[in-house]
């Protein structure tokens, strides 16, 4: 049992250190050797845990998204908030996490461009990584409609509406290099109020 725990602990440490390398170097310039050096281990040891840098990158992003989902689920389960407040708080929490991980977002964009050049659809990768987040947004909307707190509309339309704020946030931070999302925060708050009864 201790061996499994140690293996999982080492794997998590590798992922944490790999994120640092990806943020410093970008996806294309990050190498297995640089990740091993950051971890303080030999490259051959790194191969015991991961087969290549793409696998490390995917697991690193997955780990980050799990942390995001934990934050969001804690808001979602807060009984003291109504549906409008929950959705607003979730979007604002996501905005804050995106601002804190601006550099990582640039690496993700770099990775998606790299995939596209390899002939792999970035859209499929993004959809797979964001399906849980979209599900959480949809379920909060459905709950709000059932509770009589939000206007009725098609769930997919509501999901797309809410998710578009996240896409706008990423675009503003990575492509237009905005320093913060203060204007988008105000717009999102206003827009979510329009969903309320």
How would you portray this structure in words?
- Helix 1 (2-29) crosses helix 4 (53-76).
- The protein has nine helices and no strands.
- It has helices spanning 2-29, 32-39, 43-49, 53-76, 83-100, 102-117, 122-146, 155-175, 182-193.
- The protein has a domain at 58-193: Tetracycline Repressor, domain 2 (Orthogonal Bundle), CATH 1.10.357.
- The protein starts with a helix and ends with a helix.
- The mean pLDDT is 88.
- The chain is mainly alpha-helical and 197 residues long.
* Helix-strand string: HHHHHHHHH
CATH C-level category of the domain at 58-193: Mainly Alpha
Strand % is under 5%
Number of strands: 0
Mean pLDDT: 88
Major sheet attributes: none
Helix content: over 70%
The CATH homologous superfamily of the domain at 58-193 corresponds to Tetracycline Repressor, domain 2
Report the structural category.
mainly alpha
CATH topology of the domain at 58-193: Tetracycline Repressor, domain 2
User: Whole-number radius of gyration?
Assistant: 19 Å
CATH architecture assignment of the domain at 58-193: Orthogonal Bundle
Termini separation: 53 Å
Give a nutshell description of this structure:
81% of the residues lie in helices and 0% in strands. It is mainly α.
